[in-house]
Design a protein that fits this description.
The complex is a heterodimer of chains A (190) and B (304). With 190 residues, chain A is an all-alpha fold. Chain A is built from nine helices and no strands. At the A-B interface, helix 2, helix 3, helix 5, helix 6 and helix 8 of A face helix 1, helix 3, helix 4 and helix 8 of B.
Chain lengths: 190, 304
């Protein structure tokens, strides 16, 4: 908090320190939302960092500054992803499969394909769900925050977050059941 | 235990926070819960995608340097609320369209007068009178301003606002307001960035150069030169060097990044003294810059 206040008050050194602290986390969020090998990672991360600095005035200390930065980055990156998809649709371009092309740590090809399809599904769902549910799903399933952490980050009651997540995860399961890329995974469960 | 709590367990298991009992419960749930199974696929895959990579340090340094240059803390409190920003953008867009409309009408009128007027016989050979084209097609026939590539303009800037920008610079339209000019420079910059992201870097470079020609005093000039320098660095290092030197000469927040670019290009060109001088300037003027650590290593071990 003191660092954030000092940055808001015009202390350039404080702002530099704050940015140095949060930008690695911002980069992590951006890679999770738009894809680790996406060509726009740097641009979107920069957009997120600018948004974070602009949003600092609204920071009241209800959550940690890292969580605050993660939420700002998540929203900005999700908007960037939606914009890009809309632009592609407007230009008649197909949506790219945005799974990372880097090596899969020796995972079996089938397992790798399933996990990438699952990630793809989660990202697509985050694009399509209502904003509050999409944010909760992204914070929980994409960024890996627990429900109580999601509640703290969003400033919402735990039960509200639980309800949003219940709906969002039901949609995730429904889409997975209908997705041919995940047929093997679903059959394993059966 | 309800399903949501199981996915909570999964989140905590990625941080190795589970007790043995909780871990056992989670493992059992993988056999019957599809949502847990899906999340157990998603989280490790995303951890792999978002892990630290070689070059991240420099990437973060670039981001921080640009953000600090673009949006200092003194401007945090000056940020306009979103709804007012939207209103301003709408007004700016409306102004651009208005100027474009006036330009189209005015130039259409000029062409019509030119076509219908009799040319002096000593200058022009007699030929059939051409039908006047619609005013909307004026752009391809515009005499280019000295610094604009005529063929590039219509192909990459087909719509009205940019046409207005071209027209206003050629001096045919009443001077646009500063707000309109700024909106147009921003628009050009955004459009060039979009092209670059789409992998159409050649077209992006044309727009960057156009922006430098049309709006030499706009806020976008520094980042534009930087982007152009990066684009030119591999194939036309001499021209990239000119861009970096222009940024460095102007001082400002991007000087550190420009000095770094000069050092890189000079190294590629085999000009070791220039490269070392740029690194020395970088270290002296920006000792706390994120580039400084790498620069120190280079200064110690020569250019590479």
């Amino acid at each position: 908090m003191p660092l954030a206040h000092a940055a808001i008050d015009g202390d350039m050194a404080a702002l530099r320190t704050l940015l140095t602290t949060v930008t690695p986390n911002i980069l992590r969020v951006v890679r999770r939302v738009i894809g680790g090998s996406h060509p726009d990672v740097e641009d979107v991360a920069q957009e997120c960092a600018v948004e974070f600095v602009s949003a600092l005035r609204r920071f009241r200390g209800e959550s940690s500054i890292r969580h605050f930065a993660a939420r700002v980055a998540l929203r900005t990156a999700m908007n960037a992803r939606r914009r890009q998809r809309a632009a592609k649709r407007n230009h008649g371009l197909p949506d790219e499969r945005d799974a990372d092309e880097t090596a899969g740590d020796g995972a079996a090809p089938d397992a790798l394909a399933a996990s990438r399809a699952s990630v793809q599904l989660a990202r697509e769902l985050c694009d399509a769900l209502p904003p509050a549910q999409a944010e909760a799903l992204a914070l929980h399933c994409v960024l890996g925050y627990t429900m109580s952490e999601v509640a703290a980050i969003c400033g919402a009651p735990l039960e509200t977050v639980r309800s949003r997540l219940r709906t969002a995860k039901a949609a995730l399961v429904a889409h997975a059941l209908a997705d041919p890329r995940l047929r093997d995974l679903v059959e394993e469960m059966a | 235990m309800s399903q949501p709590e199981l996915t909570d367990l999964l989140c905590r298991s990625r941080r190795e926070e589970l007790t043995l009992d909780e871990q056992r419960r989670l493992n059992e749930s993988l056999a019957y819960s599809l949502e847990v199974k899906l999340m157990s696929q998603i989280l490790p895959e995303l951890e792999r995608e978002s892990r630290v990579r070689p070059g991240d340090e420099l990437l973060l340094a670039r981001i921080n340097a640009r953000v600090l240059g673009e949006l200092g803390p003194s401007r945090i409190s000056q940020r306009v609320p979103a709804h007012r920003r939207r209103l301003s953008m709408l007004l700016a867009a409306a102004a651009v369209l208005l100027v474009a409309g006036l330009a189209a009408a005015w130039i259409g009128g000029v062409r019509l007068r030119r076509v219908t007027a009799s040319p002096p016989p000593s200058l022009v050979k007699p030929k059939p009178v051409a039908k006047p084209k619609p005013a909307a097609n004026f752009l391809p026939n515009l005499p280019a301003s000295p610094s604009v590539t005529p063929s590039a303009v219509p192909s990459v800037i087909p719509d009205t606002p940019s046409a207005a920008a071209s027209a206003s610079v050629s001096g045919r339209v009443a001077p646009a307001s500063k707000a309109v000019a700024a909106a147009s420079a921003r628009e050009l910059f955004a459009r060039a960035n979009l092209l670059r992201r789409q992998g159409r870097s050649g077209e992006a470079a044309v727009l960057y150069e156009l922006l430098l020609d049309l709006y030499p005093s706009s806020r976008e000039v520094g980042p534009t030169r930087l982007a152009l320098g990066k684009h030119l660095q591999a194939k036309q290092p001499e021209r990239a060097l000119l861009q970096y030197r222009a940024i460095a000469g102007g001082g400002g927040a991007l000087r550190a990044e420009a000095l770094w670019g000069i050092s890189e290009v000079a190294t590629a060109l085999g000009d070791r003294s220039v490269s070392e001088q740029a690194l020395a300037d970088l270290l002296r003027e920006f000792p706390d810059s994120p580039y400084a650590e790498v620069a120190r290593t280079r200064a110690l071990h020569g250019s590479r």
